[in-house]
Amino acid sequence: MLPFFRKGQASAKPAIPHTAEPTQSIAPRPEARHSASPAVTAPPQPPKPPANNGIQVYEMGLQLAPEIEEAVMLYANDRAGEACAALNRFILDHPDSPDSLAWRLLFDLYEVTGQRRPFEDLAMDYAVRFESSPPTWRPIRQSGAEKKAAQYPTFAFGPNLSPQDKPRLAHFRQECETADTVVLDFSKTSVPDDDAYALLMLKTLSGLVATAKQVRLLDGEAFVVRLNASRTAGRLTESTWLLLLLLLQLQAKGNEFDQVALEYAVHFEISPPSYSPPKQVSSETTGAIIEPAPTGERFSMRGLLGASSTSIFNSLRAFAAPLKRVEIDLSQVTRIDFAVVGLLMDSVMALAMAGKQITFEGGNGMVNLLLQLIGVGQFAAIRHEARE
What we know:
By secondary structure, the chain is an alpha/beta fold.
């Protein structure tokens, strides 16, 4: 590693290595007790598509208990733990309620977050409470990038430095000692306000790149976009400037690196790091992806629909352009982030105004209720396959 020099003195910073009124709700029909969420159909315009075998469609007003609506919004904002707590509180506070909605949402939430033991405990309580068979565990199939990440030591940088980060990072470093490939996940990382957090990220990346290990970056490009926006606004510290330069180097963006390095030199009056092409680095995206070959009228999505998934809505419009009817498969979508609901709504409205009949199918309970809350049901049918 080469030191930086500020007016002839070595810097302590690590160097970059060379590498309206609510309508009255209708209680769910008895046979729908095991469905993951109350499904909603669109109003008369656009027309409702006919139901397929195995699909149950229910018409109901959107009048949710405040605790349930809170849980849906918490989950959409990536606060799954708090969403689980809100649903559990509602179940405990309403022990005689005949409505199983909160239970079904909690089943789905445990499932998509991989919490099998709490799921099984809830299933036992459900069987006693409702005197019927509970849903069975159905893990969501992981996307290719998620499967790859699960094979290697992985550290996910959060939006800020938490008390748990240091022990998690220490454990990650121990795992890295015997691994040839490691993963750094920036999908939930904001531009750090705490310079100590920026320095921690910088040291972590520098240390890994200085080894012969292969480094995989998840949503690194999206994080670079956020860093560049802060750079343009003049909000980067020296540590975050260096972090941006290192990420540009890791992503083999030589021209952009040179431009940012020049601005860094002018801003800090210090020699910038030199660019060296990366050897063992790859970038991947954790967001939702499109099935390799959408066919007929069916367009499938997977994983997290978040900030890194915005292009999928352009793909949806292009796919739907020649069609009169579009079925959007959400069965492999774990969560729709609140940050993209505007883009989602814009896409649905554009398709509906173009005369398309749109159907959302297979979404889990939290996803379906979020679609209801943001008004998608005014333009599209929202359907869910009943669970067993």
